Amino acid sequence: MTGIAGLLLAGGRARRMGGGDKCLRELGGKTLLARAIARLAPQVGPLLLNANGDPARFAEYGLPVMADVIEGFAGPLAGILTGLEWARENARHCHWLVSAPTDAPFLPLDLVESMKQAVDEIGADLACAMSHGRSHPVVGLWPVRLAGELREALFGEDIRKIDLWTARYRLATVEFPADPVDPFFNANRPEDIEEAERLLVASK
């Protein structure tokens, strides 16, 4: 959807993976980042990578890279604000931004369409994904118009949890099937990469 910008979140410290760039770990001969791009890029217009540190390490992926607008690894909500403000300035034809983590190699190919449809059906302000009855607030559809309100929540109120902020708005929660593979499986730890290798086979 050309009127919706995309945001891939890679701003964390990856402590459970032993540090470093978790999204550059390989799964089935491709990096997690490459797999996330392949799943999300066809669904959106412009796509941004949110990552802290030297952006040159992601040069081969051909994406704009932007660090958190809040210093100190403030969490995914800071990354979402970064994406919203980037879209407001650099993708003015986009009124929405969809976010997803770079450690989710099985993202749904109908993610954006399904969330936008859910928002339109009930007149919601924003949406988040769900699978197995569990919500995934970092996988969300956000209106760019809320960038200023999110900035105030982060800087003025020190809010850091996504759920605390989304509770202020009408939220559409969109359930995605988790068979044969949970589309929001996260590769957080080294053993998760092994599990993802098994799931990669199951998903073919």
What does this structure look like?
This protein starts with a strand and ends with a helix. The longest helix has 15 residues, at 76-90. The protein has 204 residues and is α/β, with parallel strands linked by helices. It has a single domain, classed as Spore Coat Polysaccharide Biosynthesis Protein SpsA, Chain A, CATH 3.90.550.10. Helix 2 packs antiparallel against helix 4 (147-156). It is built from six helices and nine strands, in the order βββαββαβαββααβα. A seven-stranded mixed beta sheet has the order 5-4-1-6-8-7-9, sandwiched between helices. It has a two-stranded antiparallel ribbon with strand order 2-3. A hairpin with a 2-residue loop joins strand 7 (126-131) and strand 8 (134-143).
Alpha carbon gyration radius: 16 Å
**Global geometry:** globular
Number of helices: 6
Give the topology string: H per helix, E per strand.
Answer: EEEHEEHEHEEHHEH
Low-confidence stretches: 14-18
Mean pLDDT, nearest integer? 92
Helix content: 25-40%
* Count of individual beta strands: 9
Largest sheet: 7 strands, mixed
